[in-house]
Design a protein that fits this description.
The chain is an alpha/beta fold. The chain has helices at residues 17-29, 40-47, 65-75, 90-98, 111-177, 184-212, 224-242, 260-277, 334-344, and strands at residues 9-13, 33-37, 53-57, 59-60, 63-64, 80-85, 103-106, 220-222, 245-250, 256-258, 283-291, 299-306, 348-353, 359-366. The structure holds adenosine-5'-triphosphate (ATP) and magnesium ion.
Amino acid sequence: MKEPPKKARLLVVDDNASLVENLAEILDAAGYAVRGAGTCAAALAHARDGFDVALVDLRLPDGDGTALAPRLKELQPDGEVVLLTGFATLESAVAAVRAGACAYLVKPCATQELLVTVEQAMRQVRLHVEKRDLSRRAQMAEKLAAVGTMTAGLSHEIRNPLNAAALQLSVLERRIQRLAKEAQPPLLEPLTVVKDEIRRLDHILEDFLQFARPREFVTRQVDVAEVVNRVLDLLGAQAERRGVRLERDIEPVPPVAGDDERLRQVLVNLGLNALESVKDGGLVRVSCRPSPGPGPEPAVDVIVDDDGAGVPPESRDRIFEPFFTTKAKGSGLGLSIVHAIITQHAGRLRVEDSPAGGARFVVTLPRLR
Ligand SMILES: Nc1ncnc2c1ncn2[C@@H]1O[C@H](COP(=O)(O)OP(=O)(O)OP(=O)(O)O)[C@@H](O)[C@H]1O
Ligand SMILES: [Mg+2]
């Protein structure tokens, strides 16, 4: 089933209850989600839950509409305010501008005028949102470019000594293996730790390199269900070690056009994040199923749920930025890589609350055409 588009949220603030009811009826019929308030206090309480456009009466029992407007905009910087006045005077127009309102309506207003004004205000709201989104993307692109330049030079310089160290380590390992059996374990143990750490460093460098010179993107027909199954087999041991229940719910899905190696990386990163976010005894569930998709063709949804702490709403915009991390040992690159790969696949990625209690990451991939 296709998700219905989100309704624009309107707030009607007037102490005349029947006027509020009247406006709400008209606006509701026009497809808006409307909430009413009779006082400044009630309006502010509603505004905290978010709104797109507020229609505010100039005179309210506990204050003035012109004073309320800036406070509403403070709570919802992308929102817009339209003032409702009793008279069409120059003073009302000036008051509206001073209060930061985008328009004013004279009561009782004609339905057509009301709808046009609200739609104009909504256009402003959408512009604010787009502008913020654009500047966030520009910032992200800038950061990525900086990472790319830095990486190209650095990773080369780091990789050479790293490879040399790894080579010497295997020489050491071979020499130890020639020693008496009982002398080997205490020497091999620290050696294995160093080897693991070198592998980890190499892995981090590999992540950085994804940004510096993205591999050529070759698409093939990919069975996402199979990729998910393979990754889950891989993550099984990790889940067991952490005492986490790893569930899978996999339905047959249409083929997608993509790079299976990169899609595997997407799932590993999302899976690891989920495993890292839950407590001992926690749950991670990976599902794969056909979905309505962004276009007319059905697509494929891969969903990673966990019962951890979730992603707080204020971080949801930021978690896809390179270097954003809340973990002591995190690089903050995992999700930005996931985002880059999904974009390359013309797919979508979103984060929301999971019915399991924690975070839900949804990857939607368009099907093969
Ligand atoms: N499943 C999740 N539950 C809660 N928070 C999450 C989840 N996945 C990601 N996050 C948040 O997003 C941040 C960024 O994730 P990302 O994968 O990009 O980096 P990281 O996991 O911190 O580091 P790295 O992936 O390099 O180990 C995390 O630090 C965490 O705050
Ligand atoms: Mg991560």
